[in-house]
Amino acid sequence: MTTLAVAVACALSWMAFLDVGMGHGDFTKVTLLKWITSGDLTLDWAIRVDTLTVVMLIVVTTVSSLVHLYSWSYMAEDPDKPRFMAYLSLFTFAMLMLVTADNLVQMFFGWEGVGLASYLLIGFWYKKPSANAAAMKAFVVNRVGDFGYSLGIFAIFLVFNSVEFDTIFAAAPGQFGKSFEFLGYQVDVMTTICLLLFVGAAASRPSSACTPGCRTPWKARPRCRR
User: Over the chain, what is the mean pLDDT?
Assistant: First the structure.
């Protein structure tokens, strides 16, 4: 069921790519619900479909569908196969939420979901100390990235009074060249924001991509050693 669902999502992603990416279709924004209202911060949960989104959609769903298909056979003899497939589906869901986000807070939700799914996959064989250690290491490194990314979001809201992409992109050119004083030094505003976001990306994603727990089955199953 999970493999079929991801395969359908992959087919739909390619259709969206051909329409928006290759066919020069219009940018689409689908608002699903009112999400956060707190002071000046008002956010909707929305799906953003533009050229960058459809490119990332085919990357995520194509790779994920191949991984699901391979895991279907590879984990056939494992009694915990349903749990493994559930973790894979959670990872795919979080990635899709990340690449279709319309604002930075919604993107942070997908970001954290990817980190959680990575932790669960790395530590899938939780009875093995090595898998637990690797999962905890990845979890801690991800939190370092989250700290930088969170500061980046706070800085963007302070400067632009919004975390929605449309508002940020429209106002960003007017912020170039502006600076603020920090410890007696004049620091560029846009450079600081970009560096904070980069810290989040640099610290978080490598540990998610390197998944020792997903490599341990190769060592655990006799047919893989042969």
Answer: 82
